[in-house]
Amino acid sequence: MLAQFRPATAPPEIQKSAAKEPREVKGKRLVMDALNAVGGDKFLEMQDRIESGRAYSFYREELRGLSFAKIYTRYLSIPPDPKQIGQRERQSFGKNEDNSVLFTETEGWELTFRGARPLPDDQIERWRLSTLHNIFYILRQRLKEPGMVFEWQKTEVWSNQPIEVVDITDSENRTVTVSFHQSTKLPVRQLFYRRDNLTRDRIDEVTIYSKYRDVGGGVQWPFTILRERNGEKIYEIFSDSVTINKNLTDDKFLIPSNIKKLEKIEK
């Protein structure tokens, strides 16, 4: 008489692992999936980027201004100190780029026809915090930083999109919550909190990414970026063109030697 066939049963520890992947393991996997989705090694090899398009600023949900914008970004060597910023950025406005805001690792300047004026400390700090929490900066510069924790939180539907939500926390206990699209693996939304320097009230900073396109070599970048603060729209850019690896030099991110230096005004 033939023995009755019974399907093989996996060991209990494997069954348990398959049934429930640890949150940190799943979180790290989702972040690495996102890195691969935005270009993998080609994304990590990106040295600089130029985004050109229409930028809109809002105050209390009302349009306050619009301008042609050109944003230059250059990545630096990954800094050994996590508090330091490993990139420089220049935001230029107008067809002739007459007005610019320049951020270096430690400084911030406003450049106009009047001269170069140091930015207020709180504006520089906002840019620094926004950069440290930015998911694309994290993917490019911070993945191997000691003390980084990636913890999956939940699966849900947001704006008719199925997403996976992951908390990314660094050694300074700064956390950004990032939503990744379930099928494309791309970042679609991020949220972090900061405190007002004077009132110490909590401020919610949200960024929404959409309309991804290949900008060269398989690198994906969002052509529409929307920022909200405490639930109100404050900024949106619609890029017409995004290019990478254009060999941007230091002079694009330095103050011209012949420009007039103006006094700093604290707000």
What do you see in this structure?
The protein has about 270 residues and is an alpha+beta fold. It has a single domain, classed as outer membrane lipoprotein receptor (LolB), chain A, CATH 2.50.20.10. It is about 20% helix and about 45% strand. The chain is built from 5 helices and 13 strands. Strands 6-5-4-3-2-1-13-12-11-10-9-8-7 form a 13-stranded antiparallel sheet, covered by helices on one side. Strand 5 (about 110) and strand 6 form a beta hairpin. Residues about 1-10 and about 15-20 have low confidence and may be disordered.
Give a quick summary of the entry.
With 267 residues, the chain is of the alpha+beta class. It contains 5 helices and 13 strands. The chain has a single domain, classed as outer membrane lipoprotein receptor (LolB), chain A, CATH 2.50.20.10.
- CATH H-level name... which superfamily? Lipoprotein localisation LolA/LolB/LppX
Query: End-to-end span in angstroms?
Result: 90 Å
Number of helices: 5
What radius of gyration results from the CA coordinates? Answer: 22 Å
- Briefly note the structural class of the backbone: alpha+beta
Helical proportion? 10-25%
Number of domains: 1
Strand order of the largest sheet: 6-5-4-3-2-1-13-12-11-10-9-8-7
Number of strands: 13
Uncertain segments of ≥5 residues (pLDDT<50)? 1-11, 13-19
CATH class (first level) name: Mainly Beta
For the record, the CATH architecture stands as Clam
Mean pLDDT: 90
Main sheet makeup: 13 strands, antiparallel
Could you please say which CATH topology applies here?
outer membrane lipoprotein receptor (LolB), chain A
Percent strand equals 35-45%
N-to-C series of helices and strands = HHHEEEEEEHHEEEEEEE
Query: What is the general shape?
Result: globular
